[in-house]
Amino acid sequence: MLSVDINSVSILDVENRRALLTDIKFDLEKGKVYTILGKNGSGKSTLIKSLTSLLPKEEYETSGKVFFMDTDVLNCSEEILREIRKHNVRYVFQDAANSFDPLKKIKYYFNLSNISPLKIEELLLFFLLPTYKKLSILHSYELSGGMAQRLLIVLALLANPDLLILDEPTSGVDYAVMNLILLKIKNFVRDKDKSVLAVTQDINFALKSSDHIAYLSEGNLTQFYTPDEFLNSTDDKLRNFINSFKEISNVVT
Amino acid sequence: MSLLKVESISYSVVVKGENKKRFDILKNVSFEVEAGEVVGICGESGGGKSTLAKVIAGLIQPDNGKITLDSKLNNKPSNPIQILFQNHGEVLNPFRKISSIIDETLTINRIHKQFIEKERENVLSSVGFPKELYNRRGFQLSGGEQQRAALARLLATNPVLLILDEPFSAQDVESQLNLVKLFKKLNKEFNLTMICISHDLIILRNLANHVIILKDGEIVESGKTNAVFRTPKMIYTKFLLSAEALDLSYEELMSESDL
Which entry of A32, B37, B141, B191 is 20 to 30 Å from A121 by CA? Predict the structure, then answer.
């Protein structure tokens, strides 16, 4: 589905160039959920943005290749890129409330695409959101953080993409909704042509939701492990992260 | 008396497009917080947790009820109740240097010029904010770093009660563990009283002496953390605990939302 071979993503300063990511290589297969775990500031969001050239060219330089199906994403025209972003690869970004224009009503985001009202209601109901009639007249600032997050997922799913990219899907979300997101992700890839790539720090969610997990630290990505392999990995880069998880789960005294 | 007394707080808003119908966000919420305690508040999104925090800090006026803070403590230049907000990215001015943000707060709180540098170092190092980032601006920091800077600014006001609104949700486990240890340290060393709002039960098990379970603006259960989480009495609390394991079916989830 997606084949990534990025040599480096660098941020350009006036004087120097700082590499944020190096040697990022992985392939995403259809029908699977992939998660990249990593700490604050490890470059997770930069990584997913680099996959479809979302990083501003004035500030970032990406060298390498990303193939979506047969399209060379980093070297194709703006038109093709826009089509891919609209139909094939959809993102749900972190800090959901800020993904909306506060001056526009929620209706605006549904009007952007032609989707059957039935499908909309079904998804809103699934995610425990108000009905379209109630929701569409609101502005984004009238939604709670959790609602905005779920609404973004609904909007991404309505586009019926091939690849769904989630940035911190469980941030600020309660357990009931986490269960819902998990069920929906699993259901989404059950259709064997779809896959999900999530980046998160939520190791618990990653272990429950993913087929494959990799760890990003200091700009380097480990291989993808199965959840079991990940928990028991002897890779030094992962140990601190996994040990902290085990320590906090056992209650710090 | 208790440090904080929350008595019969109710708060409602007008629902848009529904003929001025009012929607209750908080219904008759009462509890007390003793000095030096950490009280956890958990519950689902939209359950009224953040609204309750804002009412307690005096940012919004409740329709009914009373908030009392032990008054002899109440003579500071800054609000003695400080909130660490959820959307920390919006709390810091993205264009200002962290050191200047902290210095300003210290100045407002009447720290003498000659002590400012030392105090700045004290607050920032107490939250584990690295020295090489002091001169960065808000937008140059990651989410977790912004949150630490925002926390440092609150501590610079020397608050009586600190309300943490989902402080852990943007953090990785290593930082969560460090934050848990940090809040425990702040609580122990400075006897800082805290209310911690979190939907993350792991965090509350680690941090809170008492917990309050909030659903649809009402307290459904409260008590000592261990007691509530080990032997929950109410169906909703039991549901929360089973949802934590992330293996509920859709039917199980739905049967709860009907309650």
Answer: A32
pTM: 0.78
Would you call B44 and A174 a contact, using CB atoms and an 8 Å cutoff? Answer: yes
Q: Are A122 and A116 in contact (CB under 8 A)?
A: no
Look at residue B259 and tell me whether its pLDDT is greater than 70.
Answer: no
What chain A holds in terms of domains, given with CATH numbers, is 2-249 (3.40.50.300)
**CB nearest B166 (choices: A142, A172, A182):** A172
- What digits encode the pLDDT tens for the residues B118-154? 999 999 988 889 999 999 998 888 777 888 899 999 9
3-state secondary structure of B100: helix
What pLDDT digit, counting tens, does each position of A11-64 carry? 777 677 888 899 999 999 999 999 999 987 788 989 999 999 898 888 898 888
Q: What is the pLDDT of residues A85-132, one digit of tens each?
A: 988 999 998 877 788 998 999 999 988 777 888 999 999 999 989 999
Let me know how long chain A is: 253
State how far the alpha carbon of B159 is from the alpha carbons of A219, B72, B130, B189, B191, in Å: 38, 14, 23, 14, 11
Question: How far does CA A168 lie from the centroid of its chain?
Answer: 7
Q: B173: distance to nearest CA of chain A, Å? A: 6
Token pair for B95 = 């264009």
**DSSP annotation of B138:** G
Please name the helix (run of DSSP H) or strand (run of DSSP E) that holds residue A36, with its range, or none: strand A33-38
Rounded Cα distance between B142 and B124, Å, is 16
Q: Which residue has the higher pLDDT, A19 or B33?
A: B33
Q: Which two tokens stand for residue B110?
A: 């009447």
Spatial separation of the C-alpha atoms in residues A17 and A9, rounded to whole Å: 10
CB B11 within 8 A of CB B62: yes
Q: How many residues belong to chain B?
A: 259
Chain A interface, mutation test: which of B84, B174, B188, most A Cβ atoms within 10 Å? Answer: B174
Contacts of A146 (CB under 8 A, 6+ apart): A172, A173, A174, A177, B44, B45, B46
Q: Does B173 sit within 8 Å of A245, measured CB to CB?
A: yes
- B205 close to B184: Cβ distance less than 8 angstroms: no
The residue in chain B having the minimum alpha-carbon distance to the alpha carbon of residue A199 is: B172
Angle of helix A117-126 versus helix A145-158 axis, rounded to 10: 140
CB within 8 A of A109, min separation 6: which ones?
A100, A151, A155
Closest C-alpha among B222, B224, B197, B158 to residue B56 = B197
- Residue A190: pLDDT band by 50, 70, 90 thresholds? very high
Three-point CA angle A34, A36, A42, nearest 5°: 165
Closest in B169, B181, B246 to A205, CB measured = B246
